[in-house]
C-alpha cells in the first residue's frame, strides 16, 4: 500500500487511521529496507519524527499549514540551515549550511516534513547520477540501470516510496529526465518563478528549482507554496502566484503542436516514439487540435546549452578554492598549489571537464566564436519557441530519446550522455515551464515519459491540462 498524493494522506489522517508520526515511521522503514538504491545521502530521522509530532499537534488544534502530511526529500544542492550540503561533491566535504533556501523555508512554514538530503550528480552536472562522489542512485525498476539525473536520488525516492515528493533543480532537464526514467511526475517552472536563494549555482541563467511527485495535484501545491517574490533573489518575478492547486480544471479544446523534428531524430527509441504517438492520438480523439510544427534548431540546442552552461559553471565554481568552503588539500606547499590541488582533488572528472570547457569558450581568442555565438543562437531558439507558443497552448515531445540506460553504458562517451538532453534543454534555453508525465512502460517494464511545454508563466494551464491527461487515461497514472 502506498500513498500517491497528499490528499490521500490527509483523508486517512482525517479518518483517524494515520498520524504524521506513523507516516514518517513508514517512510523511514522504506528508506531502511531500500538502502541499496542509494537515494539519500543523509536521513534526518530524529528531526523528521519530532517535526511529525509537532504537525500532529497542529492538526489536532486546527492550526496546521497547507503541507501538513507532506514528507519531502531535498536534493543535495538546497541549503537547509544546520545541515550538511555538498552537491554530492568532495569539494564541499564538511560544509554545513548557514541559512535555509527560500524554497525550503516556505515548505517548512507550511508544515512540510523534510526527511533527508538526496543523492545527485556532482553540482547537478550529469544525466545519470553516476557523477555523484557517493556513487550512483539505482533505478528501482531495474537496479542495473540509472535513475537519470542530475536529480537521480530525488526521482528514485519518489519512485520507491521513500517520501511523497522531492525538490530538485533543473538546469537542462535534471528534474524531468529522471522523472521520466523513474515513472513519476517532474516539473520545472518558468525561469524566475521560484527564488534560487540557497540553491547551489551551476548555470545561473538556466537553474530553476523543480518538483518530483506522483501526482500533478502535489506538483501544483508545492509550486504554489515555493513560488513568488523574494527579497534575497533579485531575478525572481514579481508576478503574483496563482493558486495552482485550486485551478486544476481544463475544460476547453487545446491547441497542441508536436515538434515533428523531435519525432524524426535518429536517436529516438521506437517504443518511446510509439508511446508518445499514443498520447497524441488520444488527445486528438478527445477533441484537441494536434498539429505537427517545425522546429529546425534541434541540432543546435545541445551545443548551445553546453557552451553556455559550462561558461556559467566555470565562473560559478570559481568560489571553491579551499579558502572559504569545505575541503582543502593537505598536499599543498604554497598558495597556488593549494588552489590547484584542492580543485583537482575535490572536483570529480565531469565537473573538471566542464570547468575546462567553460574556461575555453570564455577565453579571449574564442569568446566570439563560441560564447557570443551561443548567446545569439539561444536568442533564436527562444524567439522561435515563443512564436510557436503564441500559436499553440502546448508543445508536446518525448522527455527523453530512450528509456533508462544501463549503469556505465554512457560514461565513456560524454557526447552520448549530453545527447540524452536533446528534448529537455529547449525549455531551459527559452526559460519556459515544462513537465514530464509518466505514460507507460516499454517491453522491459522501463518507464516512458511525455513532455509538455507552455509559454512563460503558463504553469496554471500546464498543470490543469496535465491533470486532465493523467486522469483521462487510466494507464497514465503513476
Ligand atoms: N543539470 C541538468 O539539468 C542536467 C543536464 N544533463 C546537465 O548535465 O547539465
From TrEMBL:
Gene Ontology cellular-component terms for this entry are:
glutamyl-tRNA(Gln) amidotransferase complex
- Please cite one Gene Ontology biological process associated with this protein: translation
Q: What Pfam families does its record include?
A: Amidase (PF01425)
Stretches assigned to the Amidase domain: 23-463
Quote the catalytic residue positions.
75 (charge relay system), 150 (charge relay system), 174 (acyl-ester intermediate)
EC number, as in UniProt: 6.3.5.7
Keywords from the UniProt entry? ATP-binding, Ligase, Nucleotide-binding, Protein biosynthesis, Transferase
| Catalysis: reaction(s) | L-glutamyl-tRNA(Gln) + L-glutamine + ATP + H2O = L-glutaminyl-tRNA(Gln) + L-glutamate + ADP + phosphate + H(+)
A GO molecular function assigned to this protein is: ATP binding
- Alphabetical list of InterPro entries matching this protein: Amidase (IPR000120), Amidase_dom (IPR023631), AS_sf (IPR036928), GatA (IPR004412)
Give the highest taxon in the source lineage.
Bacteria
Sorted alphabetically, which PANTHER family does this protein's record hold?
A: GLUTAMYL-TRNA(GLN) AMIDOTRANSFERASE SUBUNIT A, MITOCHONDRIAL (PTHR11895:SF7), TRANSAMIDASE (PTHR11895)
Role: Allows the formation of correctly charged Gln-tRNA(Gln) through the transamidation of misacylated Glu-tRNA(Gln) in organisms which lack glutaminyl-tRNA synthetase. The reaction takes place in the presence of glutamine and ATP through an activated gamma-phospho-Glu-tRNA(Gln).
Q: Which family does it belong to?
A: Belongs to the amidase family. GatA subfamily.
Q: How does it assemble?
A: Heterotrimer of A, B and C subunits.
**Name of this protein:** Glutamyl-tRNA(Gln) amidotransferase subunit A
Its source organism is: Rufibacter tibetensis
